[in-house]
Amino acid sequence: MSALDALERRCIFRSSERVETHDLVSTELADHHLRWHAGRVDTRMCKFDTPRLSLYALRYGAEVSILPDRYDGFSLVHFSRAGGIEISADRLESRVPTGRAIVSTPRRTVALRWSEGSEQLIVRVSHALLSETAASMGRPDLHAALLGNPGLALDDAASAQWHAQLETFAALDDRSRINPALAPWVAHLERGMAMFLLVQAGAPCGAPCAARASGPAPERDRRRLERLAAFAMANLDRPITLSDLARAVALSERQFNAFCHAHLGDAPLVWLRGLRLDAVRAALREDPAAELADLAMAHGFFHLGRFAGFYRQRFGELPSETRKTARGG
């Protein structure tokens, strides 16, 4: 018996109606257009979540085409449990057969086609969690690499490892999720899954990846992302201007702004602020006794009122709440 079978006990809806299916799935994952093809509608969605990750088991029964709205601040990791799917993300075509996984992070457009009878295990992971984890690793370039790849296909070995992590995640019972004493372990599990995805984003490309990314431009962009991340991390404690960042990667400000929107999904200074906030949060969790004002200023925030507002906007809580959780309640 697989630990994933526990998901069967957490079904949040079943439906044989097309309109109802669209409305329910849109509420949970992302708004989308849904086109039905061959087969009988037999939709079932099961859900298991922790404070920072959500795992879904979803099937439509029939063959379907899906055109989601742009993913806003999150990636979806698909694992084909049965049947396969095809994904076109920012014109990058990928096929995900049974037993394989893909990290979908489209910046502009995405379209999916599910085969009849396909069942997908889908993890919704926020970019805030990924960015924070990358900062704690000292590798913000991994976060940039993941955001820059609209369809990160995992090979057989990595897909099997991801499936094993899904089983561990799904095996958490309700007591584990709500017991405050186990909160640090649950948070460790969440960060471990995020770390796994980041490491995959930094892994060397295989032949299919190399074929898609042929030519000098992707390699040049990768080097620029690495230089940008290194420059930002080395200067988190001082004011950095748009001009400073652009010079670090040898681009004009206009070119650099376009580069950041294309590869990081944000304006340059918004990305930098997120990097600073992630570093503060990681430091606060590591040392909850640290003086908050000192931490903020050590990471380039010199107006504490604005800092608290930015922090709450990114993480959904105030720094004092993060400190309280890190102290064990």
TrEMBL record:
InterPro entries linked: AraC-bd_2, AraC_XylS_family_regulators, HTH_AraC, HTH_AraC-typ_CS
A Pfam family recorded for this sequence: HTH_18
Keywords attached to this entry: DNA-binding, Transcription, Transcription regulation
SMART domains xrefs: HTH_ARAC
Residues annotated as domain HTH araC/xylS-type: 226-325
Gene3D superfamilies in alphabetical order: Homeodomain-like
GO terms of molecular function: DNA-binding transcription factor activity; sequence-specific DNA binding
Protein name: AraC-like DNA-binding protein
